[in-house]
Task: structure prediction
Amino acid sequence: MALVKVYITLKPTLLDAQGRVVQNALASMGYDGVKQVRVGKYLEMQLDGEGDTLRKQVAEMCDRLLANPVIENYRFEVGE
Amino acid sequence: MALVKVYITLKPTLLDAQGRVVQNALASMGYDGVKQVRVGKYLEMQLDGEGDTLRKQVAEMCDRLLANPVIENYRFEVGE
Result:
């Protein structure tokens, strides 16, 4: 059983409207040192498997369901 | 200027409905080795400041706006 942590972020060239809203909200609360906010997704998955087979399967899950490869990047870490 | 990465997750005792939906979707696609999925948020922020002052400010932002301390846990990393 492996614990996989997946980080999904909007591609850097795209405007992150949600991040902009958070940044403005923080600024209105007095945190004006915040220059940029980008909001992404974070998933923790428990799954069977290990090694390269597991990594390949997780990459496939990201491409097919978890992330939108057109507008998002992803990376993941496999732990025990 | 520091790059801060914030990870926000639902508290472990709470049912993660969104995670359950993702898990079911993965199972229906044939990935039945997935035993649990929990969905959280991931934020990247560029902000001024450094050291303990910065860490304190980020914790305050999480408590006040970014996370809901009643149902969510957060952790963050400060990079350069």
Remarks:
- The first strand of chain B starts at residue 2 and ends at 10.
- The interface with chain A takes residues 1, 7-9, 19, 22, 25-26, 29, 31, 33-49, 57, 61, 64-66 of chain B (CB under 8 Å).
